[in-house]
Amino acid sequence: MPAILGTGEHRYRVVENFAKLPDGWTLTDVASVAVDSRDRIYVFNRGAHPMVVLDREGNFLRSFGEGLFSRAHGLHIDADDNLYCTDDGDHTVRKCTTDGKVLLTIGIPAKPAPFMSGEPFHRCTHTALSPKGEIYVSDGYGNARVHKFTPDGKLIKSWGEPGTDPGQFNIVHNIATDADGWVYVADRENHRVQVFDGEGRYETQWNNLHRPCALCCCGGAKRPTFVIGELGPGLDINRNVPNLGPRLSIVDAQGKRIARLGGEAGPGVASGKFLAPHGIALDSKGDIYVGEVGVTNWKTSFPDEEMPAVVRATRCLQKLERVLE
């Protein structure tokens, strides 16, 4: 029987074997996912076909991005169904149509800014848009910075530096915005989400999170909620400690936890477990799509076990179907 995660009105059924790929295809790590206005799912992955497009039943529609992307990391879709593809392997953000035509490139492919220089980009991680269409980029692994660009890609300002104080970052891993223009940043290794106004002024932070990795704003403009993907332990010493994830947490706009999905007994491939939630999107029915970097994370979580073939094939994409009372 498929597992049911969550409680009350936040209950989700795990859809087994969701992705139906052509013979011989694999997704490998799914870094991020997005859903367009027709509920088509865009799966930004690190396999041979970087962007795989599925319908909401998991049927394969098409792919694109072969030879274009170096290492998939972040994916955002706007109200006009334009995709913002963040590639931390070649330090760029590409705005693309849903059939793969590149409309805008921010950053110089394969030319990173100096490490921790604060200049864009050094292994950028994700994008989000302001209500005016301005582009925020989290940056990332080789910087501790958020950059703000005009809709046509001109740098407006940047903020952030390495550290643990408010406004400082320790792997700025994901970014989201709401209809009022607030900016939410997953500050992964500081175990928090920081909240800023649209100009980068620190407002508050959400704690009681474990390595927040994925971040999705949903629930409508008046009462936004957020789904946060949390990684499990990254150290040998606490690898088998319970209640640290990997898991999903659902919080309100003040960061108060509404629900938590999974994570009590650590990672796994069984129904109801996660490996390494890295990207999250919701469709029009409220179903959740979770991209996971289970291949990259396998040796961290399971150093003495051989990775099952299903992890590389399709297991790094999960669908959680909302259970309606």
From TrEMBL:
NHL repeats lie at residues 128-152, 160-199. It comes from Bradyrhizobium sacchari. Keywords: Glycoprotein, Repeat, Signal. Pfam families: NHL. This is NHL repeat-containing protein. InterPro entries: 6-blade_b-propeller_TolB-like (IPR011042), NHL_repeat (IPR001258). The keyword Transmembrane does not apply. CDD domains: NHL_PAL_like (cd14958).
